[in-house]
């Protein structure tokens, strides 16, 4: 069975495995509409008696390059209200009950990293890169990452990613526990689906109950953390450094920041 949600999201189900594909070229930037469609799709799969695990994947070279904070029609083009609405959808994603495996073929940056961390597991290709590069934009991390990233890889490694904005390659991400498997790009989707099948072959009520226990309070923690993140982002968006960070991204150079 194949279903489309909006213009940039497709869902197919084979056996007990759903494959959800984001296709928003060229960079699969998040938007409120896309995240709403994704939350709608995953909630519908929660209510399906047939689906026991989900593979989240995307088309193109980038898994998700985050939110477009630069373009006038991007998520921050009309102020911070769009970002707050995005975080409402993020909380919905973290509230989904069905296990999720992300197949990461390329860059998972900013909110794209946040999206990858919605999943229970991440299978990555060697080409995958992970970055929380907000400080390079003169901005504050969002999408609940200041809660979810330390929870996954530990506070010190999360500090390193947040304060340097560096890109972490797939092999280092594997060593850190940021990803669970690294496989050749040609095997990526099949490997993610194989992991999903390994989960789906188990007693579904037991899987759901165990996952609920393991993720207890996660959605609520993300909600509280995004409130704080949004407040800090609102302050920083008004600074000269943020304007310089946007210019630097547009011009593909390092920012020249002044602390104003």
Structural account:
The chain is an alpha/beta fold. The chain is 45% helix and 16% strand. The protein is built from ten helices and ten strands. The chain has helices at residues 32-46, 81-94, 111-116, 145-153, 155-164, 170-176, 188-200, 204-214, 218-237, 240-250, and strands at residues 2-5, 9-14, 17-22, 53-58, 100-104, 107-109, 121-124, 129-131, 167-169, 181-182. It has a seven-stranded mixed β-sheet, sandwiched between helices. Strands 6-8-9 form a three-stranded mixed β-sheet. It is globular and about 55 Å long. The termini are far apart.
Order of helices and strands: EEEHEHEEHEEHHEHEHHHH
Q: Which CATH C-level class is it?
A: Alpha Beta
Q: How big is the Rg?
A: 18 Å
Which residues sit in consecutive blocks of at least 5 with pLDDT less than 50? none
Q: What can be said about the biggest beta sheet?
A: 7 strands, mixed
CATH level-3 fold name: 2-enoyl-CoA Hydratase, Chain A, domain 1
**Percent in helix:** 40-55%
> First CA to last CA: what distance?
54 Å
* Count of helix runs: 10
Biggest β-sheet: strands ordered side by side in the sheet:
1-2-3-4-5-7-10
Beta-strand content bin: 15-25%
Strand count: 10
What is the annotated CATH architecture? Alpha-Beta Complex
What count of structural domains? 1
CATH homologous superfamily designation: 2-enoyl-CoA Hydratase, Chain A, domain 1
């Amino acid at each position: 069975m194949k279903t489309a949600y909006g213009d940039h999201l497709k869902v197919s189900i084979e056996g007990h495995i759903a494959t959800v594909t984001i296709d928003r070229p060229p960079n699969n930037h998040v938007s409120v509409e896309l995240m709403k469609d994704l939350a709608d799709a995953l909630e519908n799969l929660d209510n399906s008696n047939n689906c026991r695990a989900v593979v989240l994947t995307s088309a193109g070279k980038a898994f998700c390059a985050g939110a477009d904070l630069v373009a006038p029609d991007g998520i921050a083009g009309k102020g911070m209200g769009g970002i707050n609405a995005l975080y409402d959808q993020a909380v919905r994603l973290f509230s989904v009950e069905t296990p999720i495996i992300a197949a990461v073929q390329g860059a998972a940056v900013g909110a794209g990293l946040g999206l990858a961390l919605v999943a229970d597991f991440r299978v990555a290709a060697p080409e995958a890169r992970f970055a929380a590069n907000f400080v390079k934009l003169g901005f504050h991390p969002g999408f609940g990452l200041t809660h979810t990233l330390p929870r996954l890889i530990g506070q010190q490694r999360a500090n390193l990613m947040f304060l340097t904005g560096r890109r972490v390659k797939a092999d280092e991400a594997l060593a850190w526990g940021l990803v669970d498997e690294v496989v050749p790009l040609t095997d990526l989707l099949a490997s993610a689906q194989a992991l999903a099948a390994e989960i789906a072959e188990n007693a579904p009520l037991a899987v759901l109950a165990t996952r609920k226990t393991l993720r207890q309070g996660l959605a609520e923690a993300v909600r509280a953390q995004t409130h704080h993140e949004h407040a800090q982002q609102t302050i920083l968006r008004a600074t000269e450094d943020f304007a310089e960070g946007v210019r630097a991204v547009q011009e593909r150079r390092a920012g020249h920041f002044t602390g104003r």
